[in-house]
Amino acid sequence: MSLALIGILCAIWSLFSRWIGDFLIQRSSRKIGDWETLLVVSLSATILLFPFIFHDLPLIFIPQNIVILSAVAAIFLIMSLLNFESLKRGKISVVEPIFTLEVPVAIFLSFTFLHETISLQQAVLIIVVMSWLILISLKPHHLNKRSWLEAWVLLAFAAAIFEWASNFIVGFSSRINDPLLTIWILSIVSTIISLIYLMRYHTFKSLRDTISLHKKLLTWLSILDNAGWIFFAFAVTMVPIAIATPLSEGYIALASLLGLLINKEKLRPYQKIWFILALLAAGVLAFMSRG
User: Model-level pTM?
Assistant: First the structure.
C-alpha cells in the first residue's frame, strides 16, 4: 500500500471521527460549557499521547520548534473555543457548512508556502461550494438590514478562520516533527490554560462532579475528536494539505445532516435547496481531491 493511499485513508478516517465529534461537541458545550469540554478533550489527549512522544520531548526546545509549536498551541486554543461556542449557540446544520470556508484558504496557504497545486476544476468547484454554503445562512430579514447575519453565524465565520489556520499549521508542524508531538503540545497547552481559567470559577470537586455526570458523552467525544486531529496530522505527512483538507472536511456535511435528523433543526425551503446543492458539490470536490 502506497504512502499516498495511506494518507488518503487517514484523511477519510479523520472525516468520520470529526463527523460525530462535532455533533458531540455541540451536546457537551450546551450541557457543561466550552471550557469544561476543552479541558476534558485536551487532558485526555495529553495523558494518552505522552508515552508515545516522551522520547521526542527534547525537540520542543529547539528554537525553530518553540516558535512553530507555540503558534500551533495558540491558534488551536482560540479555534477550539470559537468552534465550541458557535456550535453551542447555533444550528449545527448551518454552522458546519460555514466551516467549509477553511478549505479554500488552507489550499491557498499550501499553494503559497508549500508550493502545492490544485486543478482549475477544483478551484472553480471550491468557489461554487463556498457560495452555496454562505447562502444557507441567509434569511429574508437579513437582506433588509446591515447586520444581515446573526451573531452566532458571525462567530462561526471567526471559528472558520482559525480552523483553516489550525489545519495549515498543524499540517506544517506535523511535517517537521512527529505528528503525535504536535497534537500533544496543543493538547497540554489547552489543558493548562483551561484548567487555570476554570479554577477561578469552580472548586476541583464541583468540576470533577460536573465531568463525572456526563462521563459517557465526554469519553466518546474525547476519543473521536482527538482521533480526528491525529488522523489529519498523519494524513498531511503523506499527501498534500490541498488534498487532505477537502477529504477530511467532508465531515462538515455529515455533521450538518446529524443536526437535521437528530436535533430536528429546521431550515427554510430555499435553505434546504442550497444545503443539498452544497452537499453534492462538497462530495464532488472530495472525489476530485482524492489524488
Answer: 0.76
